[in-house]
Write a structure and sequence with these properties.
Among the domains are: 85 residues, Alpha-Beta Plaits, CATH 3.30.70; 177 residues, DHBP synthase (Alpha-Beta Complex), CATH 3.90.870; 141 residues, Nucleotidyltransferase, domain 5; 71 residues, no CATH class. The protein is built from 25 helices and 31 strands. Helix 20 runs parallel beside helix 22 and helix 23 crosses helix 24.
Length: 788
């Protein structure tokens, strides 16, 4: 019995050929728990050699989590085997849940075949046992063609011959097909008129590329969803898409480039970066723009980097045969804050006003799944990937817990933004694909259906607890309460940043009883005191935590509106150090800030804020220790941004701004800290705000000030973390939260931890996102600990 990743990777053909090689009799079959069962008959030497080769020469994507063999050399003719065969799969499940692999990119052999095999020349669905979709097409286990969406496409005689030929690489390849029997593409215009039928597309496959070269916008249905594609050297189609996306504002688009060579026409792409772009995850990877950058400035406005991914499906290979630009915009085909579109009628209905053409196929996408996103950060003189979005290429691979006890089976619902659901089974955590913002009913239903499908694949019937965020107004909180009541179980709520600490501990493999110091830096998290946290240093483990330090709280009237209008935070701070008249004079002396005093509601805003601050009549949820809000204020103060049109925009653009003049180490700023009445250390961010404001008034270099601000924050937070770790005898120190994606802050924080000596162990995210995509993962061991 073998459990792990052993279905959907050609494992049965591998076992079959190995058994035939060693002249063994018996069978191999897939089980309903995604495991594999093998029974063999042969001599002691044959069987031992067979087992050794299975263990040491396994397929590249195979992963063993349980390998159990029972040898009985005394038994004779227990089974009347006369050959070795791949037997019919069974629905039998065991206690050890295996799992199928994620969707895999098209392999080099299949790409080559698309150039010469008459049945597969430019065929977009070409695949074999080593490549093609898995998670997005499977409907149930065990993994066999009848339990995938390929069941609708019976194999032709040629494909069937390959499928049943042990020497063919398509032997038992469940998604194999060709032009004669597989899914087909059609090209339609935005009125629904047929431009190319499936037969015509086979002969005129280059027409979509020609249309893209002419500046047309095409919706392309792919493996796990729909992309909107257009040229990258022309502004007009990009601006049209940006206008249609609406709420997206200046949020950057990803681009797809054919290979490293074409990517280097506009971005730095080292061998290491190309290696990550070519992994089986085929993620979007953030690359720094180079001096040759000539793509439209509207792809990633005012940023130093650009998200790039390489082709991973047959349709991408076909398109890039005739594309003139070095890359194509490939942005998700959905209105903002809605799930990526997967059904042909919905794609046409929702996208007809923005695209010129639809390139649609007739294969069902059973599970929609977005592209994953990574960024490489420097850590201890090496570059490591930080996951921004964990989705296609990763899901449904689990995260393992460091403890080996039997754990209760639980479901966790995460936070509100970058939502991901998780299921804790045994000592592993299975997370859903990226869901998005739970502000819409559609995304809530997406989360529910994804968890239901994951439960089905894992064979989970009984849930012992449900976990969620502490925030009372989150949709995930409401959903958790409803599910708990319906199932007669308890709903557990955990403070947002405590879940970050837990996720970091899981990612680093920290023992359950060991404490960690976690600097959790992000935009928003509901605190246990009713204020909004986001600049926290927490101490704890899976049993409990303590807020031992944080950034100095700021009163920012306006709540969520202040997030979208970060100048409110700047005005609120300035009101704490000067009069309204002085503020107006100071702002008007700075050309990049004069727009604030020109606002129609400026006088009313100042008056209202002054009254609230003077009377201390400020709601608790308008008081925040958020690092994200502090970075937002600096971004406005330095003239980097005016409004936030997408999540994290002011802070993201501040990072790019700070890099422009390479002034990172030329100015050292100090931020004092002190112990407050609750015994926690407060880092005096108001002191830093005042210093930067005063230096701006003296006309100091803004790029230099931006870089110094990032460095001072990271250095001080690291210094306080070390101080607390030393006081409590803790050696694990790390960082979590969306601010981790800032290269300067991340690197400076860990540089200080490493420089402090070997008594401290720097821990960091490796398999789990730093942002809110980690929250549901962190909630799993917290609820399991409560239940145990």
């Amino acid at each position: 019995m073998i459990n792990g990743v052993v279905q959907g990777i050609g494992f049965r053909p591998f076992v079959y050929n190995l058994a035939v090689k060693h002249k063994l009799l018996g069978f191999v079959l897939n089980r309903g728990d995604a495991g594999v069962e093998i029974q063999i008959k042969g001599s002691r030497e044959q069987i031992n050699t067979f087992i050794y080769e299975i263990q040491h020469n396994k397929p590249a994507l195979a992963r063993y989590e349980k390998f159990e063999s029972v040898l009985d050399f005394e038994a004779i003719d227990v089974q009347n085997f006369d050959s070795f065969r791949i037997a019919k799969s069974t629905l039998t499940r065991g206690n050890e849940g295996s799992y199928i692999p994620p969707d895999l990119p098209i392999c080099d052999k299949c790409i080559d075949e698309m150039g010469f095999d008459p049945r597969r020349i430019n065929y977009p669905f070409t695949s074999c046992v080593d490549c093609g979709p898995r998670y997005s097409v499977i409907t149930s286990l065990p993994y066999d063609r009848p339990r995938t969406v390929m069941d609708e496409f019976p194999l032709c005689s040629n494909c069937l011959a390959e499928y049943t030929n042990p020497s063919d690489r398509r032997f038992h390849a469940q998604t194999t097909c060709c032009w004669d029997c597989g899914p087909q593409y059609q090209l339609l215009d935005n009125k629904g008129n047929l431009v190319l039928s499936s037969e015509e597309f086979r002969r005129n496959w280059s027409l979509p590329s020609k249309l893209l070269n002419e500046g047309k916008i095409i919706a392309i249905k792919g493996i796990g969803g729909t992309h909107i594609a257009c040229r990258t050297l022309s502004d007009d189609p990009i601006l049209k898409i940006r206008d249609w996306k609406g709420a997206r504002g200046e949020k950057p688009f990803a681009v797809m480039s054919k290979n490293r060579q074409t990517t280097q026409q506009f971005a730095h792409c080292s061998k290491l970066e190309a290696k990550y772009l070519n992994t089986h995850m085929r993620p979007i990877l953030l690359l720094n723009k180079n001096d040759k950058y000539s793509l439209s400035k509207h792809i990633s406005p005012n940023l130093h980097n650009i998200g790039v991914l390489f082709p991973y499906a047959g349709i991408h290979i076909t398109l890039f045969e005739k594309i003139n630009d070095p890359a194509l915009v490939m942005t998700s085909g959905n209105p903002s804050n809605l799930p990526i579109l997967i059904k042909n009628d919905q794609i046409q209905k929702n996208l007809s006003s923005i695209v010129d053409y639809f390139l649609l196929h007739d294969r069902q996408i059973f599970q929609r799944i977005d592209d994953s996103v990574l960024r490489l950060h420097t850590f201890n003189d090496h570059k490591y990937p930080l996951i921004i979005r964990r989705s296609r290429g990763y899901v449904p691979e689990p995260i393992s817990l460091s403890w080996k006890n039997i754990h209760p089976t639980v479901i966790t619902l995460g936070a509100e933004m970058h939502s991901v659901g998780s299921i804790g089974v045994g000592n592993r955590i299975f997370s859903t694909q990226h869901i998005g913002h739970l502000s819409t009913l559609e995304n809530i239903e997406f989360l529910k259906s994804s968890l239901k499908h994951m439960k089905s694949l894992l064979g989970v019937n009984k849930i012992q607890g449900i976990g969620g965020d502490l925030h009372p107004q989150f949709s995930s909180t409401t959903l958790g309460e409803e599910w708990a009541e319906k199932n007669g179980i308890k709903f557990y709520q955990f403070q947002h940043h405590y879940a970050h600490l837990s996720a970091l501990a899981v990612d680093a493999g920290v023992s359950p009883e060991d404490n960690v110091i976690c600097a959790t830096l992000d935009g928003t998290g509901y605190g246990t005191d009713g204020t909004i946290w986001g600049g926290e240093i927490l101490m704890g483990n899976f049993s409990d935590f303590k807020r031992v330090a944080h950034l100095e709280p700021l009163a920012i009237p306006g709540g969520d509106l202040a997030i979208k209008q970060p100048h409110r935070g700047l005005l609120a701070y300035l009101l704490s150090i000067m009069s309204p008249e002085e503020i107006t004079t100071s702002i008007n002396s700075l050309p990049w800030l004069k727009w604030i005093t020109s606002l129609e509601n400026y006088s009313l805003l100042i008056s209202s804020m002054k009254k609230q601050i003077k009377t201390q009549n400020i709601p608790r949820h308008n008081i925040t220790s958020s690092c994200g809000r502090v970075l937002d204020i600096f971004s406005v103060m330095l003239g980097v941004t005016k409004y936030r049109t997408y999540e994290g925009e002011p802070a993201i653009k501040l990072e790019s701004f700070a890099r422009k003049k390479n002034n990172y180490s030329k100015l050292e700023l100090e931020i004092p800290y002190r112990e407050n009445n609750q015994g926690a250390i407060e880092i005096q961010t108001k002191h830093l705000l005042r210093e930067i404001w005063d230096r701006i008034q003296k006309n100091q270099n803004k790029y230099l000030l931006a870089a110094a601000t990032e460095k001072a924050l990271a250095k001080t937070i690291a210094e306080v973390s070390i101080l607390i770790a030393d006081k409590h005898g803790i050696h694990n120190i790390g960082m979590s939260g969306g601010v981790c994606y800032n290269q300067a802050i991340f690197s400076e924080f860990y540089r200080n931890i490493i420089s402090a000596g070997k008594k401290y162990t720097p821990i960091y995210h490796k398999q789990i996102p730093c942002g809110d995509g980690c929250i549901s993962i962190g909630q799993v061991p917290l609820i399991q600990t409560k239940l145990m």
